[in-house]
Amino acid sequence: MAATMRELREQAREELGWEKRDPDRYDIDGIVRDAWITGNGSDEVWKKAVEKHYKRFMVGDWVRITVETEDGFTEHHYGPIEAFRKRNGNHYRRHVAKPYAAFLHPEYTRSHVVPLAELVEEVTDFEIVTEWSVVHEGGPQHNYGVYSCIGRHGFAPPPATVMVIHKVSGRRKRFCDACNVPELRVRLADEALMYQRTSKSMVRELREDPSLITGPTAEPSRLWDKTPADEYREWADAFPWLVPGPAAELYAKWKENQSAVAA
Ligand SMILES: [Zn+2]
I need a surface site. Which of 54, 83, 89, 212 has the fewest CB within 10 A? Predict the structure, then answer.
């Protein structure tokens, strides 16, 4: 007797489980159809069906969108997918296997409807280091060289187990496994965004005239009297990822010259 659709679905979910895949991230009916009903059930056909019916994004997934602001800045914003939308922005009336766009409402910008093709999984913006010796390198003396998790804990947080690095800014935080979640990781990126927003005038000035960054330094006898160029350079040292390209190049050359003069 031929297997019923229900049995085939169950079988597909089981096989995905054996392959250590999460069945919920797959269109099970699509796999059953392509692999076993219209397909011959070979390993190759199964693999193709599994690949084809993987859902890269689901409601609740944290993603990053890229927003061009009206005043000429590119911002990264993060949030969970709240719903899927059609190409025209309307809601789907029923469940769809291949949604077109996602609706999300990030904390620091207005709501957006963004095609799935333009979404980035939140986690790809972070490097997650798990090696204990690296996570705790230079750890605090008073805690036996062990950093504590700075996630959601009150008194006596557990030791950190991972170091999360925001790739764009290089900013990092240490978490325990339970706190290594999207909501807490994206705070690093949100903080970088806040620095970007407060640095707008610096960025604009250096975009307009990159040579501002190579201006004169303060007189050696009056080092506390910072020149405007000193201030640009101090800012560039603190936020290297925000320095516009041409200014960054000039600054790198300027530093080389300084060390050549000093040597
Ligand atoms: Zn924690």
Answer: 89
